[in-house]
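Milestone 3.1: sequence recovery, worked example.
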């Protein structure tokens, strides 16, 4: 784990609350794999550094300046993380200079003219009751040198980056440029993705809220489907490359007949294709609910594979609308009545305030991030692994995407819940 240097400053935490803080050392570790059967005999199991307060810290709190930036798409819990960092920095460590950089990485490039906000406990006191981010966000790459110049000009010692895979790669590049210049500044990430697709995390913040909201859409689809002859409720949920929201929403709703995710290819045509399976389900039960992740079935549509968004992500064709038109055409061709209702709650799901469970999770992530940064940790993020909060190198986490494994328990639970075949081929 990268560190700015030895920690010689006594932590102020023992002076709060009248009892000692539960200090950790770098020797406190959490095993990567908690399955004893997977450990090789005689080999040292791979492990992660445990997060938490350190007895001695690197930065002197009264002299420390903090910056916070939120990047990428919206996600429940962004305001909770901002609030948690501000309160932890100010109330527990006594840091008084905290800046909020507006509109993502654009806020770190001075030519855009986004004046940073001065953040105090009073200004963030109620923001967790609202969705989105009080700092605003943006997508797209910015010049690394320009951003580090801003950190130097404003004498920012610690930068917290709240963002997903691309934003965390940007944070890693910022940390590398800071190291190249020989500066003593920490860059700490808090992983944000509504798709729950960041590696080596039990879950990402906002995921519980997101799939809970998605469940409401699934319930509405079920109501619509059962209220008409041969009713079909089709729900498209977020999940570009990972189908976690679709899987969890289907399991929680328990009224879903087909779940389509990016990790499991499917076919539409043929005796075992989705369309024939849907026809059979309607004949047998009179209604059906389909949940599809936005990245599923991309191979079925003609699309411009070179098109990308501002963050460099490939633009996906709309599988929801494609399935809607295809299903309607299929049954029309067979002169069979079908009443399909299409629901796409994507922007509602990602824009709502975090629920109580995510409130707690965000608060603990923010606390862990501040503890790490004050101890001089850099080029890393705080996440939860096997129920414990750990430090993870940014380069490790951004090396791939977490996906639903079709051979493991989660997908098998979905198949058991829906009764769908393991393959539409």
């Amino acid at each position: 784990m990268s560190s700015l240097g030895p920690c010689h400053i006594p932590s102020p935490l023992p002076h709060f609350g009248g009892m000692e803080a539960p200090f950790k050392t770098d020797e406190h570790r959490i095993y990567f794999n908690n399955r004893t059967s997977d450990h090789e005999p005689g080999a040292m199991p791979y492990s992660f550094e445990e997060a938490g307060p350190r007895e001695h810290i690197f930065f002197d709190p009264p002299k420390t300046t903090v910056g916070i930036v939120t990047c990428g798409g919206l996600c429940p819990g962004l305001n909770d993380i901002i609030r948690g960092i501000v309160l932890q920095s100010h109330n527990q460590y006594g840091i008084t200079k905290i800046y909020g950089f507006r509109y993502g990485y654009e806020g770190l490039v001075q030519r855009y003219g986004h004046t940073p906000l001065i953040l105090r406990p009073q200004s963030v006191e109620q923001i967790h009751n609202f969705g989105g981010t009080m700092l605003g966000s943006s997508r797209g790459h910015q010049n690394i040198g320009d951003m580090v110049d801003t950190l130097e000009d404003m004498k920012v010692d610690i930068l917290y980056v709240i963002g997903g895979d691309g934003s965390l790669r940007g944070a890693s590049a910022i940390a590398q440029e800071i190291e190249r210049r020989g500066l003593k500044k920490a860059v700490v990430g808090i992983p944000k993705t509504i798709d729950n697709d960041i590696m080596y995390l039990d879950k990402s913040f906002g995921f519980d809220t997101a799939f809970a909201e998605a469940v409401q859409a699934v319930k509405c689809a079920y109501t619509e489907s059962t209220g008409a002859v041969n009713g079909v409720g089709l729900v498209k949920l977020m999940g570009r490359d990972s189908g976690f929201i679709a899987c969890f929403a289907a399991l929680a709703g328990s009224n879903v007949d087909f779940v389509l995710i990016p990790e499991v290819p499917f076919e539409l045509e043929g005796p075992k294709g989705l369309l024939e399976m849907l026809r059979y389900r309607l004949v047998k039960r009179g209604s059906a609910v389909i949940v599809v992740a936005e990245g599923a079935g991309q191979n079925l549509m003609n699309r411009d594979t070179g098109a990308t968004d501002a963050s460099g992500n490939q633009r996906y064709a709309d599988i929801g609308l494609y399935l809607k038109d295809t299903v309607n055409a299929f049954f029309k061709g067979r002169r069979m009545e079908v009443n399909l209702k299409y629901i796409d709650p994507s922007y509602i799901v990602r824009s709502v305030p975090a629920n109580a469970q995510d409130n707690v999770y965000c608060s603990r992530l923010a606390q862990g991030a501040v503890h790490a940064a004050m101890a001089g940790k850099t080029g890393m993020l705080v996440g939860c692994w096997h129920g414990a909060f750990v430090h993870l190198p940014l380069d490790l986490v951004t090396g791939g995407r977490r996906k639903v494994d079709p051979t493991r328990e989660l997908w098998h639970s979905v198949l058991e819940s829906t009764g769908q075949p393991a393959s539409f081929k």
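The longest strand covers residues 231-237. The CA atoms of residues 80 and 128 lie 5 Å apart.
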